[in-house]
Input
Amino acid sequence: MARRSDHSREEIKALAIKHAFALIEEKGEAGFNARNIAKRMGYTVGTIYYVFGNMENLRFHVCGHILDYFREITIKKLPNAKNKLNYHISRYIQFSREHFNLWSFLHSLNNLTKGDAPEFYEEKIHRFFKLLTDALIPYTKTKKTALKAARTIVPSLHGMCIYSQRRNLIEQNTSDLEVMAKHMVKTYLKGLNHS
Output
């Protein structure tokens, strides 16, 4: 069993986030508990509470790490994407399928109101929306409108992914879901530009 003196506070923090991320990827929400994370790290449960204060704070850090991971794998192929908007739609759907546990956990921060999330997490959310906002600017009149569109499209995509995966009301076919999602976005933007 490791002792707190074996690693700095920042190293312990990074270890906890890394191992929580791995456990969530393996087991979903069930993997996110202090005992599992501490055991995987080789530390005591008390160390997690010493570093994070509570599990909600750790949840924010892990969700921030998931957003960073999503952004990292998204921007790898972004320069080659001819239609960046369609690329982002496809990438979001693909992430929801290939990393379902991470994607689901990311949306586990329920009942948040503005100001509830730590500043570092708000910044990661901003960076996430900036990807789609930048892709939307050619289709909207202003950057402000592009951000508003991004904040409308992401929850809509999220709902479509849930509809597809949990209810089985749409065939489990990623390409069908992508066609529907791209049609939804195209229709939304057409209406937005005529308003």
User: Anything to note?
Assistant: The chain has nine helices and no strands. The chain has a mean pLDDT of 88. The CA atoms of residues 163 and 169 lie 7 Å apart. Residues 143-166 form the longest helix (24 residues).
